[in-house]
Amino acid sequence: MLFLTRKIGESIIIDDEITLTVSEIRGSIVKLSFDYPKTSRILRKEIHDRIQQENKNAAAQADKIKQYLSTTHSSEISSSSASTEPSPFSTVAAGSDRRAAR
User: Fold this and answer.
1) What is the C-alpha to C-alpha distance for residues 71 and 78, in angstroms, rounded to an integer?
2) CA angle 64, 82, 97 (to 5 degrees)
3) Range 47-74 average pLDDT
4) Which of 17, 36, 83, 85 is close enough to 75 for a disulfide, judged by CB 3.0 to 4.6 Å?
5) Facing residues of 81 across strands?
6) CB of 22 within 8 A of CB of 6?
7) Residue 18, Cβ density class (10 Å: 0-12 exposed, 13-18 middle, ≥19 buried)
8) Cα–Cα nearest to 42, from 14, 3, 70
9) What is the CA radius of gyration of the chain?
């Protein structure tokens, strides 16, 4: 990790394409400005981390769906075997039938 000290108005150049400038300092808050090519993407770390986690969750769900579809498809081909695996598409929460019956 690289640590640099910069004052207001001073900049850092990254890969000859991205300029990061310290625009303002108020107490413990530092305001940064970025000049970067339109092909680059700059995200706050917490947003980047959330996107990465959502992508992992989506990939895991896709794997479950693929597995379910492959077992369902194979059971349709051989009519003697029936799939007992629950569908990953079912979103009914446990106990919802009881609420509907009231």
Assistant:
1) 11
2) 70
3) 90
4) 83
5) none
6) yes
7) middle
8) 14
9) 26
Could you say which DSSP state residue 85 is in? S
**DSSP secondary structure string for all residues of 64-95:** HHHHHHHHHHHHHHSTT----SPPTT--PPTT
Joined tokens for residue 28: 């413990």
- The encoded tokens of residue 56 equal 């992992």
Q: How far apart are CA 41 and CA 19, in angstroms?
A: 13
Look up residue 79 and give its two tokens: 């009519």
* Closest to 29 in 3D by CA, of 11, 49, 8, 47: 8
Instruction: Determine the Cα–Cα distance for residues 73 and 65; give it in Å rounded to an integer.
Output: 12
Torsion over CA of 43, 13, 16 and 37, rounded to 10 degrees? 30
Query: Tell me: the pLDDT tens digits for 28-47?
Result: 999 999 999 999 999 999 99
Quote the CA–CA distance of 78 and 13 in Å, as a whole number.
Answer: 63
Q: Which two tokens stand for residue 98?
A: 């009881």
The CA-to-CA distance between both ends of the chain, in Å, stands at 60
